[in-house]
Amino acid sequence: MAGTGRGRGGVREFFAARAAGWEERFPDDGPAFAAAVAALELGAGRSALDAGCGTARALPHLRDAVGPGGVVVGVDLTPEMLREAAALGRRAQGTLVEADCARLPLRSGAFDAVLASGLVHHLPDPGAGLRELARVTRTGGRLALFHPCGRAALAARHGHALSPDDIRAQPQLGRLLDESGWQLRCLDDSAARYLALAVRKS
Questions:
Q1: Rounded to an integer, what distance in angstroms lies between the CA atom of residue 96 and that of residue 119?
Q2: What is the per-residue pLDDT across 133-177, written as a single tens digit (0 to 9) for each?
Q3: What are the angstrom distances between the C-alpha of 69 and each of 46, 49, 93, 119, 176?
Q4: Which of 48, 148, 157, 197 is spaced 20 to 30 Å from 35 by Cα?
Q5: CA neighbours closer than 13 Å in the CB half-sphere of residue 62
Q6: 123 closest CA partner among 194, 51, 21, 42
């Protein structure tokens, strides 16, 4: 299953042009990010990865969840997004790394949880990307695939219908996760949010 059809260069170009003022376009998304982080059930001293972090909007919530003794890392392919994150003070909540989520410069089993906001459908090879996220997550660790609105609402925002082969739909996503080292536990695809929770298999 493929993502949007953009290669890595296309994804970087798309987000680079939109990085400045990104969060000003979506000022009401903060509570949805907080709820997605809460669903990961992180505790003090744990480690969390924000994969495809963009402007690292989730980092303050992840830092609150793991406390000062925990580890928070945000990774993104687009340097302009990371510069915007730094300008917003996000380095105070965690480490920002420019890297491809399909080839992470991180050790295996390093994280207790991964948040991936609006990421999976932008990956040229979603299966490879999810396998890489599984590699850096400990057995039993959690993955949250998240967007602050559901697929139907997002499609309407962009003026198109839902695709029947959308990899974020439950049948396709369940198979993709299973083949990539994850077990899908629940999926909320409502108007208010898209949140798929999965657990890293042994």
A1: 17
A2: 999 999 999 999 999 999 998 888 888 888 878 999 999 999 999
A3: 8, 15, 11, 27, 34
A4: 157
A5: 29
A6: 51
